[in-house]
Amino acid sequence: MNSEKQKPPTDTLCITPPPIKSSTNAAADLDGYILTGTTSHGRHFTPPSIARLTARFAGPFKPEQHIHDPTCGSAAMLVHAYHLAQNDLNDNATPQSLRITGQELNHSAVKTAETTAQTLGLDFDIRQGDTLTNPQFTTEDGQLISVDRVIANIPFSVDWDHGAALPDPHDRFDWTNSPPPESRADFAFLQHIISQLGERGRAAVIVPHSLLHRKADKRFREYIVENRLLDAVVDLPTGVFPDTNTKVSIMVLDTGTDHQHPENIFMAMLTDEECVEVDGRLVIPDEVQNTLLEAYWEHTQSSHTASTENESDIPTRTPSTNNEAHNDATTEKAAQANNPPAENTTLDNWT
Hints:
This protein is about 35% helix and about 15% strand. By secondary structure, the chain is an alpha/beta fold. The chain has a single domain, classed as Rossmann fold (3-Layer(aba) Sandwich), CATH 3.40.50. It has an eight-stranded mixed β-sheet with strand order 3-2-1-4-5-7-6-8. Helix 2 (about 25-35) packs antiparallel against helix 5 and helix 3 packs across helix 4 (about 75-90).
């Protein structure tokens, strides 16, 4: 593949809130405790650097927000989100100023999550149940409770029960003429997440990379793009999950960007050259996370400014000098590793 094809799209890199403080808190100390576990039924425990990066994409966090993880496992990502919220709120976040909830199918994981929250002195509300067939966070009249932020590492390509989930009283799965297939629940989880987000809600979700280009899922990708729900896609290198070689991406969804033109979706790819190896797995250093988030927020701010000036004619952005340098560096490293950026870092395979 020639260098032109290796180079990421010119409208892709972009921003960050101030760099997060060093992890000296209890969450970092407990990472080894709350993240231990085995892989089963499409579930993979989330390494700390990936949980941290995903939670950062779900920000910024504000007082009184409801933060939710519909597939929370042992609550590792919720713990990271809580401490990120403390950073965003200048350490004024308290268990009383944020509502943090999670749902998990596995009984043992729920107990671990509860123990984790108690150990940290956090008032998490963790409930057991199948998110797709029996969502636990509903109002008295049976409607889904709206949340402000969602972070999730969804089960990868697991089966789900049409018979138990359909017809759905919450109308979560009616985007197209038929729901996602019973053999792959990936987009069913995304449909649930989007249905639960309130106005100006944000979600950062770890998904299998195959979800971005499977032909069978094209209609769901089209829906997300056409309804301007997709804010960003970040491809992660193989090896960031020590228990699987499955390539993963972070998908950022936003219900508040009704002006988010498809040409302005932030897309980026991290390579293994930008990571460090620790105990046989790849870790994304804070400085790399900071650079990526800085690029993302700059991109988001510039696209929103352009859209408010003239939504009908949103220009394609040219990255700043710093972003071009990041793109060039990424390209050079990928070429050296003989692993050029995947062609589906663009929207070509989405619609």
